[in-house]
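Dear V.,

Thank you for sending over the compound details. I've combined the ligand you provided, flavin-adenine dinucleotide, with the protein sequence from our construct and run the structure prediction for the complex. I'm sharing the raw inputs here so there's no ambiguity about protonation or stereochemistry in the SMILES, which I know was a concern on your side last time.
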Amino acid sequence: MTVNNPNTKKIVILGGGTAGWMAANLLHHYLAQYGFTISLIESPDIPTVGVGEGSTPQLRQFFKTLGIAEQDWMPACNATYKNGISFVNWSEKPGFDEYFHAFPSAPDRQTAAGFLQNCMSRRRGFNVDAHPNRYFLSATLAQQALSPKPKGQATVAINYAYHFDSVLLGKYLAKIAINSGVNYIQARCDKCHNHANGEIKSVELHTGEQIEGQLFIDCSGFRSVLLQQHLAVKFNSYQDSLFNDSAIAMPSNSEHVIQSQTLSTALSNGWAWKIPLTNRIGNGYVYSSQFISADEAEQELRTKLGLLDHADSAKHLSMKIGRVQQHWAKNCLAVGLSQGFIEPLEATALHLVQETIESFVSAFSAGRFTQQHQQQFNQRLNARFDGIRDYIVCHYKINSRDGNEYWRANRHNSNISDSLQNILQCWDQGGDITTEINRQQIAGYYPAVSWHCLLAGYGRFPEMHTAQRQTTTTDDNLQLIDGFIQECANNFQPHASALKFGSN
Ligand SMILES: Cc1cc2nc3c(=O)[nH]c(=O)nc-3n(C[C@H](O)[C@H](O)[C@H](O)COP(=O)(O)OP(=O)(O)OC[C@H]3O[C@@H](n4cnc5c(N)ncnc54)[C@H](O)[C@@H]3O)c2cc1C
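Below is the predicted structure of the protein with flavin-adenine dinucleotide bound, written out as structure tokens.
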């Protein structure tokens, strides 16, 4: 594929879910200046997945790139602020039944060193406080239902993410893209036609019309119509290390206080998400169909939520867990569920959508709009998917829940990567995790501090020599840390006020 003729620079996106509309906006933003035009085809008969309501901090950059302010998009998508994720009941170690995975920020530099030091001492059996919640500002903001937005003029900017209604976000992004000139075609793609060299020449709609293009972006969801079905690119399943393959989504009414965190609570055969929006709460159960039936899972979720009236609708979904071997093949790039899905535990899917498009644009333009850098691009994305997978697999591998086969099977599963095995070995043997993460060059996926939060948050420590105290981060220092964090937290707006955009 070489696109030099300005008359033939046509990008065709198949699929109008969140991935399709994010791709349309970003590709327009980066490539319209080179004369590319964009068409997006969406079947009115094939629904979007309609879930996916939590983000990572990366989504802030997406809106910044497009010049869209929070007060514009957040109210339109019933969005709220997210300081991080609380993991509840993943560990049965006393004192570790819950921990918070923070998005590390500048103020944490004052306190995180104490946490890392105490983790090391505790790994050596000393009796020190090494629970992550005490050391991160965003954990306190979440506990006190505060937003990540400072009061008055910002003195310290901290890292945060969002919760939003995914259907509304799709509609919002569609409007922006169409207004900026993206050509929207509502039709089903029934066939593809190739050039002699095997590249895609056109997609054929159910009306018989053929839409030609030079570059095709497959955003058709788990169907992966162009990349996996038409170009037959192979899929690497993660099912041997991530057992969950199904989900149920079920909304419930808002609570009195809108939380500024996602809750992820371990259940009998998976985990439940709780995502607070401004008008409702998004709930769901991600589970493994090998261990529990859809009916039993629905009953368990209903019982947990107190929604026993079956008039409250439940949406059942199947998930294909893994990634394609090549995200960009010939003149086709897959973005979103069509390229793979790791499972939603750390809400990383839209992060990967964004990263796929941004990396693609870099590689595509560096190669003067050819496939010159396709191989490096694919290697980079594969490493990224596998790196995130390992962090998520670790949540299951190190669980200490008893009582049923699902959790035991996860704990005893030996299908884990060498990378993860090395991290666990390093942690258990008292090695330096930061050095190990740097040695493996995986800090870009999850930094050492996130690995500490996870491993310490589950209480993965040896028995303590209770008599021994360690003179690292002592109780006096901890009180200083508590005071410092509370003083910082006092400067942040309550979540409810930060969401009143009209009056800010
Ligand atoms: C249970 C669950 C929870 C999740 N939670 C999160 C989360 O918290 N955070 C996060 O970032 N992500 C999450 N995700 C992932 C997130 O939902 C998706 O990454 C995101 O919605 C993008 O989906 P998509 O656009 O790739 O696919 P879809 O939403 O499935 O869209 C596919 C599009 O392709 C179109 N299409 C398909 N075939 C054709 C055809 N033949 N012709 C024309 N059009 C066609 C459809 O009409 C549709 O518009 C979750 C996913 C699941 C399953």
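A first observation: The chain has 16 helices and 23 strands.

Warm regards,
I. M.
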